[in-house]
From TrEMBL:
Alphabetized UniProt keyword annotations: DNA-binding, Metal-binding, Nucleus, Transcription, Transcription regulation
Entries under Pfam families matching the protein: Fungal_trans, Zn_clus
Organism: Penicillium roqueforti (strain FM164)
SMART domains in the record: GAL4
Range of residues in the leader sequence: none
Gene Ontology MF annotations: DNA binding; DNA-binding transcription factor activity, RNA polymerase II-specific; zinc ion binding
Protein name: Zn(2)-C6 fungal-type DNA-binding domain
PROSITE patterns noted in UniProt: ZN2_CY6_FUNGAL_2 (PS50048)
Any GO BP annotation: DNA-templated transcription
Domain Zn(2)-C6 fungal-type: 14-47
Biased composition (Low complexity): 88-98
């Protein structure tokens, strides 16, 4: 009797690596017997996770047997080993800091992985996830090192959250593979830098966008996000604070504003628990490097907090009056060590000049001045908000303690006197050179100019300005940005769009008001200048893609409306003669504007001279439908934010 053929069955389960990523686990010709994905990533191919039976589980979780936990002492900041066996529901939710850890005894990053039957700890789903991302980081080691180098070129000048020499050394030594907090902040750095590089922020010949494209920014973003403990009480130390802060900045880069608010909130939660706002609450054994990094982190995200409040609304989390943190020392990173601060070389100039006066100016002098501007912005935002505080039905009490707000000219006079006292390096913006010792000053100059214009726009938003004054201001703002080398503007990247959004806000308020032919022509010129500036930026910046063309199309539509209005006025002022009249085809009586023009639904207002001898142009108002897709908000009614983009 012939034997019954064996029924073919599908593979029961994927390997641990493929299972964590929900990807197909396929065979390969790897001599080590690994699947194709594990061979591609050069990681062990294991099946150490516990098997789970299909269908409804019999009984309750409490009736399940648990594998006993073998406790082993572990140093802090060491990545855990993915354990085997089962654990209860309460154990699964246990944070990584409470789980057993296995240090790397050999220094080999792979030694922290469970390579089959060695680990005695119970299985922790979070540990497996972290180790999967650890494998991803090992496979992407070269790219991570490159992105860290690029960070110090295009992000560090504005957000100097790391001490350069020590951070690069730690990444080169793969310390981030053994330190969970450092891993999270390193992955966040890679996510931000990769996104900026994708959007055209590179300005030197050392790097090319295509070389930094893989793995994509989203992969590093997910790695950083998954590396932050779900229980924030377990996220101890500066690295987790730094990771949340950088993820908030990366979210702005990607236009994910809700995620920006989420990670900003996580950052402020951690800083409250760690006492970052008061140096007296910091650990007593911090090195000079750690002290400076904490100061830079605090004031960097203070400025980001003020900026996000202006742009998207919300509340200011930390007030300068509540903060007891010094400014970062105005010393370059190479002069800051674990043991103290060095002195920069003194210039060899002779004469009676003192040694102190001959010390070179540090770029952090300009960075600290930008922080001064944001501290001023905090009070300007408060003043603007108080104008609307009566709408919530509460009585006004702030007037008992606060003097009358100052006008825009008075504030700007004081600010410009502070600006005039800066060294000349921060008042000039030369083209980029590729020499970061020089370009750091150019970045500070560009950032100072952008922040000065932001301050001016917020001040002006609280005042009633005429059309001519608004056009003057918008023209001056455009002139400032147009004179800054485009490489700096691209490196500042997505946040700059919201500075330009302030100009769009001003011009939008002009467009929705009463216009004359002369005022429209002036606004039209400014809009085209703004489209040119956006065109210079959008070559790589994804979120600005098409913005300049949309603005030009908007101008074309309004031009079409204006041409139609002039023809109507001419027809009304010069009616056709009754005698010897030439028949006119009604279909050709009024030429249609370009195809981009959408005719307004309301009556066409009179545009043009009221009489044949009138020198003054009549006032008119554009119909709302012509401005319905204006890229920026037309008034302050949209939210308590000032500069959000309509196309986010």
């Amino acid at each position: 009797m012939s034997q019954k053929p064996r029924k073919l069955q599908r593979v029961s389960k994927a390997c641990d690596f493929c299972n964590r990523r929900s990807i197909k686990c396929g065979r390969s010709a790897d001599p080590l017997g690994r699947c194709q994905n594990c061979a591609d990533f050069d990681v062990p191919c294991t099946f150490d996770r516990p098997a789970k039976r299909r269908g409804v589980k019999a009984g309750t979780r409490a009736s399940m047997r648990e594998t006993p936990l073998v406790e082993t002492p572990a140093p802090e900041n060491v990545l855990p080993v993915p354990p085997t066996g089962r654990m209860s529901n309460s154990s699964v939710s246990r944070s990584y800091s409470e789980s057993a850890h296995r240090p790397s005894l050999t220094g080999d990053p792979w030694s922290t992985f469970n390579v089959g039957g060695v680990a005695t700890e119970v299985y922790d789903d979070d540990s497996a996830l972290r180790n999967s991302w650890n494998a991803f980081a090992i496979a992407s080691d070269r790219q991570i090192r490159n992105l860290v180098q690029v960070y110090f070129e295009i992000v560090y000048p504005i957000f100097p959250l790391f001490h350069k020499q020590s951070f690069i050394e730690r990444v080169n030594n793969q310390e981030h593979l053994r330190n969970p907090g450092l891993f999270a902040s390193t992955m966040a750095v890679c996510a931000l830098v990769s996104g900026r590089a994708r959007d055209g922020a590179l300005f030197t010949n050392r790097w090319h966008r295509e070389e930094l494209a893989e793995p994509p920014s989203e992969a590093f973003y997910a790695a950083a996000k998954d590396s932050i403990p779900r229980d924030l009480a377990a996220a101890r130390g500066i690295n987790y604070m730094r990771a949340c802060a950088i993820l908030a900045i990366a979210s702005i880069q990607n236009g994910q504003i809700k995620n920006m608010q989420k990670f900003s909130g996580m950052y402020h939660t951690l800083t409250s628990m760690e006492g970052l706002h008061d140096e007296k609450l910091w650990p007593k054994n911090l090195s000079p490097i750690e002290i400076e990094e904490r100061r830079r982190l605090f004031w960097s995200i203070y400025t980001l907090d003020i900026y996000s409040t202006i742009v998207w609304g919300g509340v200011i989390r930390y007030r300068e009056a509540h903060s007891l943190v010094r400014y970062p020392s105005e010393v370059d990173d190479e002069l800051i060590t674990l043991h103290g601060y060095g002195m920069p070389p003194v210039s060899p100039d002779s004469g009676d000049v003192t040694v102190v006066s001959r010390q070179p100016v540090a770029w952090l002098r300009g960075w600290n001045f930008t922080t001064d501007l944001y501290r001023i912005l905090e009070y300007v935002v408060d003043g603007n908000r108080r104008r609307f505080s009566s709408a919530n039905g509460t009585s006004q009490v702030w007037s008992l303690f606060t003097p009358a707000s100052m006008s825009e000219p008075a504030v700007m006079e004081r600010v410009l006197s502070m600006y005039a006292a800066l060294p000349s390096q921060f008042k000039e913006t030369p083209p980029t050179t590729g020499d970061m010792a020089k370009d750091l000053f150019g970045f500070q100059s560009a950032n100072i100019q952008a922040t000065l214009q932001l301050l001016r726009m917020v001040l002006l938003s609280a005042e009633e300005l005429g059309v001519d004054r608004k056009c003057d201001v918008a023209g001056e703002l455009l002139s400032v940005f147009s004179n800054v080398p485009v490489e700096y503007l691209k490196a500042i990247s997505s946040p700059l769009l919201h500075h330009l959004g302030g100009i769009g806000y001003i011009l939008g308020s002009v467009m929705e008001g009463s216009l004359s032919e002369a005022s429209y022509q002036r606004v039209r010129t400014l809009l085209l200048e703004m489209a040119d500036l956006l065109g210079r930026l959008e070559t790589g910046l994804q979120r600005a893609a098409g913005a300049s063309q949309r603005l030009r199309s908007q101008v074309d539509r309004i031009d079409g409306y204006m041409r139609t209005s002039r023809l109507v006025n001419l027809t009304l002022q010069h009616p056709h003669p009754q005698h010897n009249a030439i028949p006119i085809d009604n279909k050709r009586e009024m030429p249609f504007p370009p195809t981009t023009y959408i005719p307004p639904s309301g009556p066409v207002p009179a545009v043009g001279p009221p009489t044949g001898m009138g020198g003054q142009m009549m006032q008119f108002q554009l119909p709302p439908e012509l401005l319905s897709d204006w890229p920026w908000p037309m008034d302050g009614a949209h939210s308590d934010g000032f500069l959000p983009l309509a196309f986010e």
